[in-house]
Amino acid sequence: MISVVVPAHNEANVIERCLRSLVEGSADEELEIIVVCNGCTDRTADVAQSSGVPVSVIDTPTPSKANALNEGDRAASGFPRFYVDADIVVSPGALSKVAEVL
Question: Helix or strand or coil: residue 59?
């Protein structure tokens, strides 16, 4: 299983697009996606949970990307592990292809 940690601070407008791009071209249950909402004051956590993409959401009050990455890393169980910003769109199957090389 591939783990993907997505640190997110007030990313309600883009998080769903990011999550959908992660699973596009991936096999069922190939990805463990962990969204770490850090100090969000918008609906990022709600949007991630209702995106239709299987994700785990961690909501921390600390607005720190470094802390979010560490929280996500502690929760992740797969390898390889990718860290993807919430405003990024990944090409279909890209993570799977990189994981094969690793």
Answer: strand
Q: How many other β-carbons are positioned within 10 Å of the β-carbon of residue 89?
A: 12
H or E element that contains 66: helix 65-75
Residue 90, C-beta contacts closer than 8 angstroms, at least 6 positions apart: 18, 21, 22, 84
Written as six digits, the tokens of 71 are: 């929280």
Place of tokens 């921390």: 60
The answer to whether the CB of 56 falls within 8 A of the CB of 75 is yes
Chain segment 43-99, per-residue pLDDT in tens = 999 999 999 999 999 999 999 999 999 999 999 999 999 999 999 999 988 999 999
**pTM summary value:** 0.94
What is residue 23's three-state secondary structure? helix
Q: How far is CA 87 from CA 4, 18, 44, 77, in A?
A: 14, 6, 12, 23
